[in-house]
Amino acid sequence: xKVEIRRMLEADVSQVIAIENCWDxxxxxGEEGFLQVLxxxxxxxxxxxxxxxxERTSPGEAGTLVGAxxxxxxxxxxxxxxxxxxxxYLGKRVGRQLLEQCLEVGRQRQLTRIFLEVRHxxxxxxxxxxxxxxxxxxxxxNYYRDPxxxxxxxxxxxxxxxxxxxxxxxxxxxxxxxx
Length: 179
Ligand SMILES: CC(C)(COP(=O)(O)OP(=O)(O)OC[C@H]1O[C@@H](n2cnc3c(N)ncnc32)[C@H](O)[C@@H]1OP(=O)(O)O)[C@@H](O)C(=O)NCCC(=O)NCCS
Prior knowledge:
Layout: E1 3-7, H1 13-20, H2 30-38, E2 44-51, E3 65-73, E4 77-84, H3 94-108, E5 113-119, H4 123-131, E6 135-144, E7 149-157
Helix pairs in contact: 1-2
The chain binds coenzyme A.
């Protein structure tokens, strides 16, 4: 399956919420939360993964959103505050492609490090982040609600080298400006 990673638009929000609702334990941003993010492009980089049409795409699948991510752009570091893929599309490298684009945006913004929080019990996500260069640096007690749980804080350096040739095309029109 080929996906295009592109900037999230207002028209995407209903599909993004449907992905969010697939996961009980995610803190729900809802429509208002995602619209707020879209209104602050200087602070947030919201991305979606959209299925591209190809000979291996099943009818009606092209154009479907199969993942979303939001990177908060702080002065010198980034915070990955959202990354999700619906259950049926897990393990197809969608999460990885979204994360890579977030890292590339971080590199272009000259951020030094990228942080994130993840539930203690979210072993799949922790393994995924470890495989992608993050390490646990601290613990936040009772960080989550519904259900209450501690968070691991994970961190990695923003990459210094650009994505391989070809990958940068997906950033076209993404408003990634030099600082
Ligand atoms: C974390 C998350 C975004 C990862 O997304 P994903 O699209 O499944 O990620 P990838 O496909 O890039 O990688 C996932 C795993 O599948 C494996 N994989 C990918 N393609 C594969 C293939 N063709 N064959 C076999 N394994 C494959 C990868 O090696 C990877 O293994 P790992 O977890 O042991 O590292 C996803 O699990 C998710 O949305 N979880 C629910 C929401 C959530 O908890 N988000 C994190 C909040 S902090």
